[in-house]
Design a protein that fits this description.
Elements lengths: L5 H15 L14 E6 L4 E5 L5 E3 L19 H26 L8 E5 L5 H8 L3 E5 L3 H11 L11 H4 L6 E7 L8 H11 E12 L4 H12 L6 H4 L11 E2 L2 H11 L2 E6 L8 E7 L2
Bound molecules: zinc ion.
């Protein structure tokens, strides 16, 4: 995801309203009022829930009120080159993700939705496989990039809107969330929203960082050893800047959540030891 841009700066200024409307003692996963500050970082605080141990920061992104008309930041040459420069690295991962998808179904003629489509690269890979592709991307500059580079029209309306929930209920063969859950304001609700637009027998593919890993434990130890002064490692995991990491699931929390929503888990990959390790899930709607 594009990080420091002018758009981000404007949104930082705009986030106050959204943040003050949410009571962060309410756990974003289990909805009990049992969360309290656990780690005070330089620019944000990590809350932990006493009921379910979910960890999340006290920040929500302010989404543009009229996404389709969001033309505040036209895609200039410098930004286009920046996004272009990031494509090879993300492309390598997304091509691996595509192999995973293709191990489970044939994409030709299927209806696919890529949520958090970014610059449109995965949507382009889906198109090359003969799929009918929809993509959601709230940041206007990425939508403009995808349009210019790949000729793909991404949608700025997020998954909880009527556009998707009513217009595409039970519609998609495949929904993908690559590196998206950790960025969303309300990941549990959005996974339910994703479930709603998948057809019976359809697939959900996702990856997201995992919290119960060695790296996270070391980050916590480092914070405690320094009596709260060593925030550096935790700050590599969370950030209050727009569209950065707001929460990190542990494996059981994510498996429980998808199960509660109604998915069955077809395959799961993860490991405790690798740094910045991810959970990769393949789920199916019955
Ligand atoms: Zn909780």
């Amino acid at each position: 995801m594009l990080q420091e841009t002018q758009t981000d700066q404007k949104r930082v200024a705009a986030t106050g309203e959204q943040n003050s409307a949410y009571d962060f003692s309410r756990c974003k996963l289990c909805a009990t009022f049992a969360a309290s500050p656990k780690y005070k970082l330089k620019n944000t605080t990590v809350y932990a829930c006493a009921t379910c141990d979910f960890h999340f920061i006290n920040h929500l992104d302010s989404l543009p009120p009229a996404p389709q008309g969001d033309v505040t930041t036209p895609l200039d040459r410098k930004t286009r080159e920046y996004i272009e420069g990031k494509l090879p690295a993300s492309g390598k991962q997304l091509k691996e993700n595509m192999l995973l998808v293709k191990r489970h179904l044939s994409l030709s003629g299927s209806h696919c939705l890529d949520i958090g489509a970014g610059a449109g690269l995965f949507a382009q890979l889906l198109t090359e496989e003969g799929a009918f592709v929809h993509g959601i991307e709230p940041q206007g500059i990425f939508r403009e990039f995808a349009q210019q580079k790949f000729g793909i029209a991404l949608n700025g309306e997020t998954i909880e809107t009527q556009h998707w929930q009513q217009g595409f209920a039970g519609f998609f063969d495949v929904v993908t969330l690559w590196d998206v859950l950790e960025h969303l304001n309300f990941p549990a609700e959005n996974l339910q929203n994703a479930y709603n637009v998948i057809k019976p027998g359809g697939w959900l593919f996702l990856d997201t960082p995992r919290r119960d890993t060695l790296y996270y434990r070391i980050s916590e130890w480092s914070y405690r050893l320094g009596s709260g002064a060593n925030t550096r490692l935790l700050e590599t995991l969370y950030s209050p800047l727009p569209f950065r990491h707001k929460q990190i699931f542990n494996l059981n929390q994510l498996l429980e959540l998808v199960g509660k929503i109604g998915f069955s888990v077809t395959s799961m990959q993860s490991s405790f030891f690798r740094s910045h390790n991810k959970i990769v899930l393949v789920c199916r709607k019955p």
